[in-house]
């Protein structure tokens, strides 16, 4: 089974701190994604990556950056955490089959971040 | 631009009765559509997906969905609800392989005994 793991289930940080959220997948997937989930808003895409060292902005990239130095690992960075970044953060991965089929994304369990 | 609208934020049913969760989509191209489920304190799990093959798609746990292009709908159904079906359900669209998913805002399904 595909496994997507996230470094923490719960995290509490203070305003202004630099925060790192780590995501690792074990299926050699090319694509990796970071979403945030807020009640009544569904999931919104922050950043995604098609390959090592490649990154693309999603719908809400402001206040975030990402790093993908290795294929299996995709990090989300909050340069200076703010209270409005309190949320559930979900990482996902998928592979490129090259056959035109649309592949599902596999999600990690999420990290619930609270910024005080 | 593509988008997804889930028409009900909350649906309540009794155990053993049918489930209907409604989803409409907007897309410039032929979309791929998914339903994901999220149980409390669990990760998102794929229920089923439509990728331009059969319009009636069967998924896990007895769920199915029908793609209706004329109505731009992809409603999720189950003939008989079970208590374990209580969860949040997301309708999702993707237009191009590898690009991110666009999620609806979710429908919370409650099942009473």
Q: Indicate the CATH architecture of chain B.
A: Sandwich
Quaternary state of this entry equals heterodimer
What composes the largest sheet of chain B?
6 strands, mixed
Percent helix of chain B, as a range, is: under 10%
Which CATH class of chain A is shown?
Mainly Beta
Reported by name, the CATH topology of chain A is Immunoglobulin-like
Describe this structure in words.
The complex is a heterodimer of chains A (116) and B (113). Chain A is mainly β. Chain A has one domain: Immunoglobulins (Immunoglobulin-like). Helix content of chain A is 0%, strand content 52%. Chain B is 0% helix and 53% strand. Chain B has strands spanning 3-6, 10-14, 19-21, 23-26, 32-38, 44-50, 56-58, 64-68, 73-78, 87-94, 102-103, 107-112. In chain B, the strands form three sheets. In chain B, strands 2, 5, 6, 10, 11 and 12 form a six-stranded mixed sheet that branches. In chain B, strands 3-9-8-7 form a four-stranded antiparallel sheet, with no helix packed on it. Chain B is globular, with a radius of gyration of 13 Å. The interface between A and B is medium-sized, with 29 and 22 residues.
């Amino acid at each position: 089974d595909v496994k997507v793991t996230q470094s923490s289930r719960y995290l509490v940080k203070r305003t202004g701190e630099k925060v790192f959220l780590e995501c690792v997948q074990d299926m050699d997937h090319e694509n990796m994604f970071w979403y945030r989930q807020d009640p009544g808003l569904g999931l919104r895409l922050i950043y995604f990556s098609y390959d090592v060292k490649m990154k693309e902005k999603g719908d809400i990239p402001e206040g975030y950056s990402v790093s993908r130095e290795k294929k299996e690992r995709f990090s989300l960075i909050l340069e200076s955490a703010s209270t409005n970044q309190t949320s559930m953060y979900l990482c996902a991965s998928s592979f490129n089959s090259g056959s035109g089929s649309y592949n599902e994304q596999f999600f990690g369990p999420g990290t619930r971040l609270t910024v005080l | 631009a593509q988008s997804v609208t889930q028409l009900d934020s909350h649906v309540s049913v009794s155990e053993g009765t049918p489930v209907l969760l409604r989803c409409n989509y907007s897309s410039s191209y032929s979309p791929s559509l998914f339903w994901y489920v999220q149980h409390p304190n669990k990760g998102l799990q794929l229920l089923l997906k439509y990728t331009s093959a059969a319009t009636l798609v069967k998924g896990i746990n007895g769920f199915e969905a029908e793609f209706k292009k004329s109505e731009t709908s992809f409603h999720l159904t189950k003939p008989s609800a079970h208590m374990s079906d209580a969860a949040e359900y997301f309708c999702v669209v993707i237009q191009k392989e590898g690009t991110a998913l666009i999620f609806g805002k979710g429908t919370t399904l409650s099942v009473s005994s």
